[in-house]
Fold each of these.
Amino acid sequence: MKTANTLKKKSVLLLFGLMLLAMSVLFFGKGINADAAGTKATLKDKTLTSEYGRAYCPITIKNWNPKAKYTVSVSPADSATVGYIYESSEDANNAEIGITVNKKGTIKVTVKETVNNTTRKVGVCTIKASTASEDSGVFLPPVTYNFQKGQTYNINDLLNSSSVESYKFSIADKSIATINKYGVITAKKAGKTTLTIKKGTDSASTDIEVVSSTFTAKESKKITQLKSKIEALYKKKITAGNYTSWYNEYYALSEEWKKYTDYSNFYFQVNGRYTLSDCCKKLADFMKTRTSNSAYGASLDAVKITKLTSNQVSLQLAKPVSRADMVNILRGSGKYSKNAKANYTIVLSRTDGKYNYTYTFIAPVKEGQKVITGKLKYAGKYTINPPYKNYTLKKAEKGKTYTYTLRFAGNSSMTYQKRTIKCS
C-alpha cells in the first residue's frame, strides 16, 4: 500500500510538471489551484502614469503563479477597463495585466491572488492619468453613410470608447440631421450633409446622406416600439433571480431587431439612446459577478482533457456547468432553458519548426454536464516563414503532442488556459 507521504510526493511532482507546462491563464478564468504558491507574487510598480482615452497601461506581477486565480478591481469602477493576464515576453517569472484607462484622474488598481481557496492581496497600483492619449484620435472611414428619414442612429460602437463624454459631435446642416451628446443621430429630411467628431485636438469628418424611408408606417411604428422596449430593458435591474428571464427578453428583442437592421451599413444602425449593445454590456458586467469571467462568454472550470483522438476530444470539468455558465455560453445564440444547448470551442495547436498546426473542436454544452466532448470541425497548417501558405488537414495526428487552449465560447481570441496532451 502506498503511504500518504509517497502519494503526497508524487502529487507535488505532478503539479510541478504541470506548472512548467502552463503558458497562460486568463486572470478572470477559474485556474486550477496549486498546492503551493511558491515565491509570493508582488506588483512591480506602486505608481504609474498613463494617458487617458484608449491608452494601454500594463501592470506587471512579479513572480506570478500561473495556476493561481487572479482578480482585479478598479476604483473608480468606470475609470479603466481590465484586460487579460499574460506571461511577460521579457521574463517568464512575471506576468502583465492589460489596463485601458478611460478617464482623466487617479485610478487605484487592486490585485488579489487565490491559491487553494486562500485569497491574499498582491498589491495596489495607483495610475495617474493626466493627458489625452496620442492614439485616442478619431477615425472615420472615407465613405458616405446613408440614413433613412425619421429614424435615429447611435454611433457609439464606431467610437470604440466607453467615455462618450470625451467626444464632441456636430452636423453641418441641422435641417437634414441632428446629433446629440450621446452620439445619437436623428435623420430629419432627405439630403446630404457632413458629420464631424472631435476629441481633444483631433477630429474627423464624413459625409452622410438622408434618404426617404423604405419602411412602411406599420414598420416604423414597430421600430419605435422596439426602441422603447430595448431602452426599458436596459433600465431594468438584473438580479440573481431574474437574469435568465432578463437574458431571454434580450434574446427575443435581438431576434426581432434583426428584421430592421441594415447590414450593408455596418456602423450606423437604426437605434435609440440605449442600444442592444448597451444591453449586452450590462448583462456581461452582471455575469462577471456570477461566473468571474471578464467578457460575455464563459471559461468553464476545466480540470484536464481526458482523451484526444484524431477527430474527438473529451474535457473533464471541476464542477458541472452552471446556469450562469449557460447564459454566458449562449451569448444571444438561443433562448435559455434547462435543456438549452450551446457550443464551446476547444483549440489544439502544435509546431514542428516549419509549420503551425491548428485544430478546432466544437463541444455541445448543456447545464449540469461535467464532461464535454467535442468533434473536430477544422484542421489546418500554415508555414511559419513566410506565414502565408495555408493547407487544409483532416485530422489530428496520432502520437503527436499538442498544446490545447480552452477558450471562451463564442470568442476564440480570449485564451483561458494552456496545457499539453498526446493524441492517442
Amino acid sequence: MIQESFPQEINHAKQVGIVGIPPLAVIQTLNRQGVKILDLDEPLIRANIENATPYLPRVYCAILRTAVINALELELDAVFIDVGPGKCDCALHTAQIMKDFLAIPVITTKNLDSSGYGFPLCEAKMDLVAKMQAITNGVKSAAPYAIQPPACRPTAGFWGVPPRDFSILSLFPDTTHIYGWTRCMENKTPADHELEAEYNPEIPTVFFAQSFCAKTASARYLAKKHPHGLYLDVDVHTTGSAKAKIQAFLELSGAGR
C-alpha cells in the first residue's frame, strides 16, 4: 500500500529510483507509464561511500549509504522507498532525510504484498553472481520472472540479503540454493518473515548480512542453530579475510567449486 499518493509530476516522470522493494502496485504503475526504474540499493556510480556521511552516520549499512549517494548523483524524477516491515526502521529515517535534501519527491511506501511469485532462481543450478543479478533486476518489473529454470540438488546455501559487493558470491558453487530475504525478494513478498527464516539444515550454509544491518541478529542466531552454518557480515567491500573464511568453510564441508 502506498502511504502517499503519486505526486502530479510523477505522471511525466522518465526515471525514478527505488530503495528496498516498493509494492507491486507501485511497480505496475511505473511499468505501465514506461518509467525507467533504477535500484538505488546497488552501487550504480563510482563514488566514495564517505560522500553519504553528511547525511547518514557510518553505522548505517552500506546499502542505505549507497542509496543516498545514488540519489545525490543520478538524474531522477522521484524516489520510492519502502519503509515497511520488508525493509527496516533505518530506511524510514533515511527517507525523512532524503525528503529534506533532495529537490524531487521522495515517496514512502509499505510493502505488505503476500501473493507469492515463487523462487525458481533461488533453487536453480546457476552461477551465483548471475543468479543474484537476475533476482535483483526482477524488482524493477511487476511481471513474473522470464527465466523459470528447474531446481537442482543443493550442495551449499546462501542465506541473507543481496550483498553490496557481489564478488563474495563468486566463491560459491553453481549448486547453491538461496534463502533469507533474497528468497523473499524473488517471491515479491519482502515482508514474509516466515519465508525469510527458512533454511536447509542438510547443506552447509553461509548466513550473511551487511554490517550494521538489523538482520545480522537473525543471521547470527540462525547460523548457531544450523548444524553446519557460518555467520558472516561484511561492510562496504568484501575483505580478503571474509573471502578466505567462506572458501575454507565450503572446501572443508565438501561444497567447494
Amino acid sequence: MKRQTLLFTLLAIFVLNFNGWASLPSSSLATVTSSGFANNTNPNNKDSFRVAQMKLFISMTADDYGKLRGKKLNFLEKFSFKASQRRMRKMLKYYEYGDGPTTLQKIAALLKGLLLGPIALLLGYLFLKDDERELMKWIWFGFAGFVAIVVVILLAA
C-alpha cells in the first residue's frame, strides 16, 4: 500500500511539474517585440529585447495567450499562466532596481550546497525569493560537488 501511495505521489509531482511548463511562452512569442513585429536582435540589444518580451507577456490575457498557442487553456494552464505572469512582474521589478546577486553571494551559495548538500537545496527552495532564484543555480553546483565527494568517499571505503 505504501508503494502505491509513493508511486501516486511521484506521478502527481511529475504531472504538475510538466503542466507548469505548458504555461511558459512558446517559441512563436520569442520573435515578437512589444510593438508586435518580428525583430532580429543583436547581442548588444539582447537584454532590452528580453525585457520587451516579458512586458508583452505580462500584458496578455489568458485568452490572448490561448489564441497564440492555438488552443484554449484549461484551468491548470490558466493558473500556471497567471503564476508565470506574476513571476515575470517580480523579475521586471527586480531588473529595474538591481543587477542580481553579487559574486560573494554566489560563492556563499556554492559553499552552502557543497557543505550541506540536500539540506541546502531544501532550504533554498523554501526560503529564497523569486528575485534570488539565481542563487539556486549555485546551490545546485555545490550539491553536485557534495555528491561527487560522497561518491569518492564511498568508493574509497
Amino acid sequence: MDNYLIPANTKKSKLILGFFTPIDLAIFGTGCTVTIIMLLIFQGMNLTTAIIILMPALISGFLVIPVPNYHNVLQLITNIVMYSMGRKKYYWKGWCIKDGEE
C-alpha cells in the first residue's frame, strides 16, 4: 500500500531532553554560574540589586526557552538576523532549456 508515516519531531531526538543543544546548556549554565557568583559576592542587597544580580540567569533562560515552530528564542533571533542581513533579490537559474529567456 506504500503509506509512509514520517514523524513531525524527527529532529527532537537529537536534542538533549528533547529541547536543548549543548550550546543552549552552555549558555544557560554560564548565566546561572555568573548569577551564583554575583549572589556570593553581594551580600546585603535591595530589590534593584537583586534584579540586576538575577539578570544573567533570566536572560540566558529566556534565550533557551522553547518556542513553537522554532527550537528556541536564540534560534528565532538568529533566523531573524540572518534573514534581515541576507540577500533579498533572488535570481532564477533553473534547469529549463530556455532558462527564463525568450
